[in-house]
Design brief:
188 residues; SH3 type barrels
């Protein structure tokens, strides 16, 4: 059994009977009174983030997590099928376990976190950047490039993002999947 001195970002533990991940933490030693640890915890199942304060020395139950690479295959219903890149075993993962499923591209290698003792998939992390093609956007007005104005565009995964005015249909762009934002145009 661990205690609050073992808390770090990314640590998974049991909190109120559910698995949570530490998003942020801060050890605080006030001038008066005992020390404590202020945390932001993310529920793995729902994605909900809560604030919690633990007193120093509080016992916590750490959950052992394993990460494995899986290749995205195809969607089905409310979820998605992935294939283990080492043994070719396929698994079905519900859509709610993925933060930004609209950026999933066929063949993309994603990182899947598993509860080690129970072999349950917990979360899926997409690659930080994907290369995508713009399938639809309004044409930019010539001479209207002096400001950093953005316009909506649809990419080949079906997601809609904001792009600069100089981007046209058929352009290849790099998209940041963590923020859902345009990163740069890819020169062909």
């Amino acid at each position: 059994m661990a205690n609050t001195s073992d808390i770090k970002n990314g640590l998974c533990m049991i909190y109120n009977g559910k698995i949570v991940s530490v998003v942020e933490f801060q050890h605080v030693k006030p001038g008066k009174g005992p020390a404590f640890v202020r945390t932001k915890l993310k529920y793995i199942e729902s994605g909900k983030i809560v604030d919690n304060t633990f007193s120093a020395g509080h016992k916590i139950e750490v959950v052992r997590i394993e990460t494995r690479n899986y290749q995205y295959l195809y969607p089905e219903g409310e979820g998605f099928y992935f294939m283990n890149t080492e043994n070719y075993e396929q698994i079905y993962i519900e859509g709610k376990m993925i933060d930004t499923p609209e950026f999933l591209q066929e063949g993309a290698v994603c990182t899947v976190q598993f509860h080690a003792e129970e072999e349950l998939p917990l979360t899926v992390e997409l690659p930080f950047y994907i290369d995508s093609e713009v399938t639809y956007t309004e044409p930019g007005v010539k001479g209207d490039t002096a400001t950093n104005t953005l316009k909506p565009a649809t990419i080949d995964t079906g997601a809609e993002i904001k792009v600069p005015l100089f981007i046209n249909i058929g352009d290849k762009i790099k998209v940041d999947t963590r923020k859902g934002e345009y990163s740069e145009r890819i020169k062909s």
